[in-house]
Specification:
The chain is of the alpha+beta class. It has one helix and three strands; from the N terminus they run E-E-H-E. The chain has a three-stranded antiparallel sheet with strand order 2-1-3, covered by helices on one side. Strand 1 and strand 2 form a beta hairpin.
Length: 65
């Protein structure tokens, strides 16, 4: 069995009003797919398998421990 920390990150986009969602290799792709199905979607986005959606600044997450 593979631990969750060894799985590749997956982009997840969820419409906060309907609960409809998309999964893709990247959060931007998942969001675009959600908008294709639901043009008025209000997406909430997260990367599954990673501690943050994106990094801010130049500091690595490994250095933040």
């Amino acid at each position: 069995m593979v631990g969750l920390s060894r799985l590749p990150p997956v982009g997840y986009a969820n419409d906060i009003e309907t609960g409809e969602f998309e999964l893709a290799d990247d959060t931007m792709i998942a969001t675009r797919q959600l908008y294709e199905r639901l043009p008025d979607a209000q997406p909430w986005v997260v990367r599954i398998g990673y501690r943050a959606v994106r990094r801010f600044g130049v500091r690595s997450l490994k250095d933040a421990r």
